[in-house]
Fold these 2 entries.
Entry 1:
Amino acid sequence: MKKQYLPTKICVVCQRPFAWRKKWAKVWNEVKYCSERCRRNKNNPNAKSS
Ligand SMILES: [Zn+2]
């Protein structure tokens, strides 16, 4: 099996890069969060200051 290149984005909440996932195949352009957890935290992105 060949390694495939997976696009990545930076999560707007935790500011970490995350890789494309199959479940996002149709909505990748709209994906902003690395996980459901970050999606829920979107109103509170800087809860812990850096
Ligand atoms: Zn995140």
Note: The radius of gyration is 12 Å.
Entry 2:
Amino acid sequence: MVADGLNGLRPAVGLEIHVRLRAPTKLFCGCRNDAHAEPNTLICPVCMGLPGSLPVLSADAVMLGARMALALGARVAPVSRFDRKHYFYPDLPRNYQITQKQAPLAVGGSLAVAGMTMPLERMHLEEDAGRLLAGPRPGTVAVDLNRAGAPLLEIVTRPVPAAGAGIRAWLRELRRLVRWLGIGDGSLEDGSLRCDANVGFVAPADRDDPAASAWSELKNLNSPGAVQRAVAYYRRPRTWRSIQKRAMDRDFSWRKSAEAYRALYRRVA
Ligand SMILES: [Zn+2]
């Protein structure tokens, strides 16, 4: 598909799908893995990030991840490794997430649905964060750590030409496979299957175009229909043009925010 008026740029989409694994325990501790328990009843020093606690990997989660990888024709790595991804968020008590960046559980594979093949980049295991809820008083926030440390399998696809309806059918088929294999509940509604869509453009191989680096991540799309609508929105020529313009302006915006930050710093220092 060639995008009209876009100098040969082609819209593309890549998906990141988080599958909550149906393992009996969390990924690195013995706490029960149950999304429906009373808040903060399934917690321990490991998933609360208390000092001195040590993670122990769940073999069940590894086996479920490998089962999904083999079903999708991916190559399960003989050795894989876990990494820390540091960031602060109120529902992440350790201030880092244990994930796999350098050496994932599996690479490659694909899933073909109704003539559309989505090649897969990688599959890796990682732990979920907790959950923020509305607090007991207006303006307050409560934290539920039952989900902190729950086992997730992240499936990352390679970018493919954007095709809204095809993506919807593809996600439905992936969800059927998750359920049929007993990997997880596959429910987009209760968050046991979550999908982020990365939408952007690919430039022709012989050309460098700033718009081709302006990918947008649309997070937590909660149904195959929502993914389809999001992709359809990005396929509109008007959206493409505004993204292209934003990419051109990006250097300028960076300079502007750096100046604003320096002005703020001068005020508080
Ligand atoms: Zn725990």
Note: The chain has one domain: 10-268.
